[in-house]
Amino acid sequence: MPLYLSINTIAEITCFLIGLICLFQDKSLLWKSFIAYLFLVCITETGGIYLRVHHTRNYLIYTIYMFFECLMVSTFFYYIYKRYHHKIKLLYSWMALFLVIYLMELYTSHFKSFPSFTATFMSVVFVVASLYFYLLIIKDERFRQLSTYPTFWIVNGILLYYFGSTACNVFYDYLVQNENGIKATLSIRYIIFNLLNVLLYACWSYAFICRYYQRKLSSSSR
Amino acid sequence: MQILSKEVIFLITLTTSIFLIAPIFIIVYVSYYNKKKAKHLEEKESLKKTFELELLKSQFEVQEHTMETIATNLHDNIGQLLSLTSITLSSIKADSAQEGKINAAGELVVRAIQELRQLSRIMSGKELIRKNLGHAIAFELDWLKKGTDYQVQFTDNTIRTIPQNSDKELILFRLFQEIISNIIRHAGATKITISIDQTDSTLSLQVKDNGKGFVLEDKLQASDGMGLFNISKRAKMMDGTFSIHSVTGVGTDILVSIPYI
C-alpha cells in the first residue's frame, strides 16, 4: 500500500478531495468537470504505479491519459477566452491538430512508446495559451483581485507545470534510456515531475477553495 | 561510473529551475501590474467624483444666483409698481359708491405686496438664512401652511449658529425645499414632521411624512428618482450623509446630516 502513496499520488488525491468538496455544488459544468478529471488523474496514477510494480511498462496508460489532459486544459482555456469573444472554431482546430500529431507519433512508433514530441508540443501550446491569458488580463480594463481569482490560479498551475516540464520533455528519450538500472523513484525525471505535480495541484487546490468562497459569497449576497 | 552523467542531471535541473523561475516572475509582474491598474482605476474614479461634485457645486451656484436675481427683480420692480398702484389707489377721491371698490382694490394690492415680499424672501436663500436655518424653515412652513391643509410639526433643536457655515445651511435649506416639494407632488401625505438637530460636529435635518411611500430601488431606477439622487449627491458634496427609509402605505423618513463645525 505505501507504494501507492507517493508525493505524486498524495498531491493528486488531496487536490481531488478539495475539488470534490469545493466544486460539487458548483453551477458551472466546466468547474464541476475538474472533479471527474482529477478522478481520472488519480486512477491513471494508481494504474501507472500498479503496472510499474508488476514490472510492466506503463506508457500506454499515460498515453491515453494525455488525450484527456489535453481535452480538459484546452476546454478550460477555451472557456476563459470565450469571455473575450474567441470562437469555438479555435478549440476544434487545436484539438484536430493535436489529434493529428498525437496519432501520427503513435503510428510512427508503432504504439510502443510514449508520444513525447506531442507532449512537448502540447506543453508549448499551453504555455503560450497561459501567457496569452496574462496578456488579456493586462489589457482588460476591468479590475480583478488576482490573489483570489480562481481562473488565474488554475492558469498559474498550468504555466508552472508545462513550462517547468519542457526540459524533461525535450530530453525525454535520453532520460528514459539512461534510467534503466536505477530505481524509478530516484530518477531526475521522477523528482522533477513530483515537484511540478505538487506545484500544479497546490495552485489548483487553492483555485478550488477561492472558487468555493466566491460562490458562497455570491449566494449569500443575493 | 554512474548511469546518468552528473552534467546532464545538472543541466536538466538548471533548465527546469530557470523554466520555473521565469513563470514565477511573470506571475509576480502580472499581479503587480494588476495592482497598479487598481490604483489607476481608483484615481480615475476619485477624479470623476471630484468633477461631478464640482459640476454640482457650479449648478447649485448658478441656480442660487438665478433665484437671487428673480427675487431682486420681483422685490424691486414689481414690488415698486404695486406700491405705486397702492399709493395711486389711495389718492383717488371717489364718491361713496365707488370708494368701497377702490378700498377693496387697495387692500388686494397691499396683500399682493406682502405675498410678493414673502415670495422674494423665500427665493433669496441668503437673505432668509441670515438669522439661522430654523428661522428659514419656519418661514417656508408658514408659506406652506397658507396654501395647503398639511398638518405640519416643526422642531428646532439647534443650539448655536456658525456664521462661517451659512453656505452649508443654505444648501441644507434648499434640500429641505426639494424634499417638501417632493412630498407635495408625490406623497399624498396629510402630516409632515420636520426636525433639525445639532451635535458638536453635525447638523441634521429629518423630514417624515405619512404619505403613500415607495420602494426605494424602483424609485432610484426610474427616471423620477433624479430628485432623490440629487439630494443624495448634494449631501455628499458637503461630506454629509443621506438616508431614506420608506414603507409603502406608511410613509417616508428622510435624514440628511452634514458636518457642522
TrEMBL record, chain A:
The chain crosses the membrane at residues 6-24, 36-53, 59-81, 90-108, 114-137, 149-172, 192-213. The keyword Transmembrane helix applies. Keywords: Membrane, Transmembrane, Transmembrane helix. This is YhhN-like protein. It comes from Pedobacter westerhofensis.
From TrEMBL, chain B:
It catalyses: ATP + protein L-histidine = ADP + protein N-phospho-L-histidine. Residues 172-261 form the Histidine kinase domain. The keyword DNA-binding does not apply. Signal peptide: none annotated. GO terms for molecular function: ATP binding; phosphorelay sensor kinase activity; protein dimerization activity. InterPro entries: HATPase_C_sf, HATPase_dom, His_kinase_dom, Sensor_HK_TwoCompSys, Sig_transdc_His_kin_sub3_dim/P. Its EC number is 2.7.13.3. The keyword Kinase applies. Pfam families: HATPase_c (PF02518), HisKA_3 (PF07730). It is an enzyme of class 2 (transferase). GO terms for cellular component: membrane. Keywords: ATP-binding, Kinase, Membrane, Nucleotide-binding, Phosphoprotein, Transferase, Transmembrane, Transmembrane helix, Two-component regulatory system. PROSITE patterns: HIS_KIN. The chain crosses the membrane at residues 9-32. This is histidine kinase. It comes from Pedobacter westerhofensis.
